[in-house]
Amino acid sequence: MTVTYDYTGRAVLVTGGTRGIGAGIAAAFLAAGAEVTVCARTPGADEHGGGIRFVRADVRVPADVERLIEGFDRLDVVVNNAGGSPYAPLAGTSPRLHARVVELNLTAPLLVSQYAYPLLAAARGAVVMIGSSSGARPSPGTSAYGAAKAGLHHLARCLAAEWAPVVRVNTVVVGLAATERAAGHYGGHGDERMGAAIPAGRMATPGDVARACLWLAAPGYVTGAEVRVDGGGEIPAWRHLASGDSP
Ligand SMILES: NC(=O)c1ccc[n+]([C@@H]2O[C@H](COP(=O)([O-])OP(=O)(O)OC[C@H]3O[C@@H](n4cnc5c(N)ncnc54)[C@H](OP(=O)(O)O)[C@@H]3O)[C@@H](O)[C@H]2O)c1
C-alpha cells in the first residue's frame, strides 16, 4: 500500500531544515510537490539542487523571524523543527546556556508561529511542532531541553484551541532518532546499539518523522494532538536488569 500526498501549490516552511530530521521533512514536502523554504543559521550541504529555498535566519531573533516571514506571499504549513540541546547537567552550567536552550526549543517556535499566523490563517493552514520524548518523560542531563519541549507540547495545545478552526496546530513527539549528529548525542552509539532500547528495534529516521508531518499538515480535523513517533517508547532499564542483560 502506498500513501501519497499532493502539496502542489502549497508553500511550506521548515525551520532548521538544512540537516537531520528537518532536512528529511523538507525533502518529503518537496517530493509531495510543495514549494519548500528552509531556514537555519548556515546553509546546508545540498538544498536539492536549488529545489529548496534557503533563508539565513536565527529563529531566536525576532528581527530574523520577521524578515523570514516577510519573504512569503503565501504560507500553508510551518514545521517548527529547529531545536536541540547539548548534554548539560543543570549544576555547574551557565544560566545563559539554559536560557538559550529554552529560547530555541520553546520561545522560537512561539515566535515563528505568531509571525506566520496571518498568512497561515489566510491559507487555512497548519503548524507542526517537532517535540521530543524528552518533554514527555524525565530527561536527566538535558533538563532545560526537556522542560522546554514539554512547554512546546503544551503551547501547541493552547494555540490549537486559540486558532481553531482556522489554523490547526499539532505536535510530533519524536523518540530516539538517527541523524548525522545523533551518534554524538547518544554516547557515540548508533542505531544498532540504541535500537535495543526501543520496542520497534531501531531508532526513528527523518523519513519516519516526515511521514507524520505530511499527514498532520494535510487538511483534516485533527488539531491539538500529539503523535508519538518513537517506535513504542523506550524499554525501561529495569527490564534489562531484571533479565540480567546490561541496559
Ligand atoms: N535527533 C534526535 O534524536 C531527536 C529526538 C527527539 C527530538 N528531536 C528534535 O528534532 C528536531 C531536529 O533535531 P535534529 O537532531 O535533526 O537536529 P540537528 O541535526 O542538530 O539540526 C538542527 C537544525 O536546526 C538548525 N538550527 C539550530 N539552531 C538554530 C537557530 N537558532 N535558528 C535557526 N536554525 C537553527 C540547524 O542549522 P544551524 O545550526 O546552521 O542553524 C539545523 O538545520 C529538534 O527540534 C530536536 O529537538 C531530535
UniProtKB/TrEMBL annotation:
The keyword Oxidoreductase applies. Transmembrane segments: none annotated. It comes from the Bacteria. Keywords: Oxidoreductase. Signal peptide: none annotated. GO terms for molecular function: oxidoreductase activity. PANTHER family: OXIDOREDUCTASE, SHORT-CHAIN DEHYDROGENASE/REDUCTASE FAMILY (AFU_ORTHOLOGUE AFUA_5G02870), SHORT-CHAIN DEHYDROGENASE_REDUCTASE FAMILY PROTEIN. Belongs to the short-chain dehydrogenases/reductases (SDR) family. This is NAD(P)-dependent dehydrogenase, short-chain alcohol dehydrogenase family. It comes from Nonomuraea jiangxiensis.
